[in-house]
Design a protein that fits this description.
Blueprint: H1 2-8, H2 14-23, H3 27-37, H4 60-66, H5 72-87, H6 97-104, E1 114-118, H7 124-133, E2 136-141, H8 144-156, E3 163-167, E4 181-187, H9 196-206, E5 207-220, H10 229-237, H11 247-256, E6 259-266, H12 268-279, H13 282-290, H14 295-318, E7 321-330
Parallel strand pairs: 1-2, 1-4, 2-3, 4-5
Antiparallel strand pairs: 5-7, 6-7
Helix pairs in contact: 2-14, 5-14, 6-7, 10-14, 12-14, 13-14
């Protein structure tokens, strides 16, 4: 046991590695410094010299076996599992039930209404709105694994009709929605859509006169941001390609389909705060995962998620990308229902 305890000191603790990523440091460099700071008796023994043997050309099969292949289905399931550890059951990003309810109050939802929800994720927000306000929600999710899990979770909650979630492909000849809605919401849904004009037109077409459209989305602060190395690295590392616009450009797209923009504001500070609070407990999550049979694999997924969100948070804090909120309404024949704002 003493040997094991001593050996465990020669690796940077998981909590430190998570914190390093989160604070923007290189974990490998931090580990070098950590090892250098150890007293001689705690330092790892030098590696034994490799035995000399005749050089032999590696066989293709042997080379392939040295690369760890990631099962995409298992990886998707693991990411969904880890997401709920970090963000809460039914969620895969910042903004839990209280945030969703507060965000949606401007929509004046009621049980008589139907609602279109884009980027429904795991369906948590849709179920909260259906439960809190009685509204009938139809969610659409671009990630087929998230959509399938969301459908399963809504069924388990007895809300498969009240908070339905379907898979859709907005970047692949999407033909629009099949019925009218009183309200629409797009939660970080548009930044991965190349033809935003077409999708916004589809939403406007299916909104009833006077209907409200709430958007929260990633935007760039100015066009010059796309030339920055940090932005290019973030773009390449994203799971779906971002097609970024400025807040003014997003507003213009809404106005082009005759929608009236009533609210347009930066909510980045609140968003970053939610990210920080969620990830503050990552070391506790890692400790729980370590006790599971598949804990080692899940901890690796947790580390990748930490790196993913750290990169995104860094750009948000630098002001290069922002989280923007817009509320727009479809013009009605009579006075606008938001004319007193």
């Amino acid at each position: 046991m003493a040997e094991q305890a001593k050996g465990s000191k020669t690796k940077l603790p998981l909590k430190w590695r998570l914190k390093a990523w989160w604070e923007g440091y290189d974990p490998a460099e931090l580990e070098k410094r950590y090892l250098a700071s150890l007293p001689p008796e705690d330092a790892p023994p030098p590696a034994p010299p490799a035995p000399k043997k005749a050089a032999e050309a590696p066989k293709p099969a042997a080379l392939a076996s040295t690369v760890e292949e990631i099962d995409p289905v298992q990886n998707a399931a693991d990411r969904i599992n880890i997401a709920q550890y970090i963000w809460g059951e039914g969620y895969c990003g910042p903004g839990g039930p209280d945030y969703i309810v507060a965000l949606s109050k401007l929509l004046a939802l009621s049980p008589e209404m139907s609602m279109l929800f884009l980027a429904a994720g795991l369906g948590g927000p849709a179920r909260v709105l259906a439960d809190k306000f009685g509204v009938w929600v139809t969610g659409y999710e671009e990630d087929e694994h998230l959509a399938a899990k969301a459908k399963e979770l809504s069924k388990m909650a007895g809300m498969e009709r009240k908070a339905a979630v379907e898979h859709y492909t907005p970047n692949d000849e999407f033909e629009g929605f099949d019925r009218k809605f009183d309200r629409a919401m797009a939660k970080e849904a548009l930044y991965t859509v190349e033809d935003k004009d077409a999708l916004i037109a589809h939403v406007e077409d299916k909104l009833k006169p006077g209907g409200l459209f709430l958007i929260t989305d990633y935007v760039i602060s100015e066009d010059s941001v796309v030339a920055k190395e940090s932005f290019r690295e973030w773009k390449v590392a994203e799971r779906s390609t971002p097609y970024m616009v400025t807040p003014k450009e997003l507003e213009a797209k809404l106005k082009n389909v005759r929608m009236q923009v009533r609210v347009s504001e930066d909510i980045t500070a609140q968003y970053v705060d939610m990210i920080n609070k969620a990830w503050a407990g990552a070391d506790e999550v890692a400790a729980k995962l370590a006790k599971l049979d598949d804990g080692a694999r899940l901890i690796q997924v947790l580390m990748r998620e930490a790196e993913y969100w750290t990169r995104r948070k860094s750009l948000l804090e630098a002001g290069d990308i922002r989280l923007w909120r817009i509320v727009a309404n479809k013009k009605a024949g009579g006075p606008s229902m938001m004319s007193d704002w």
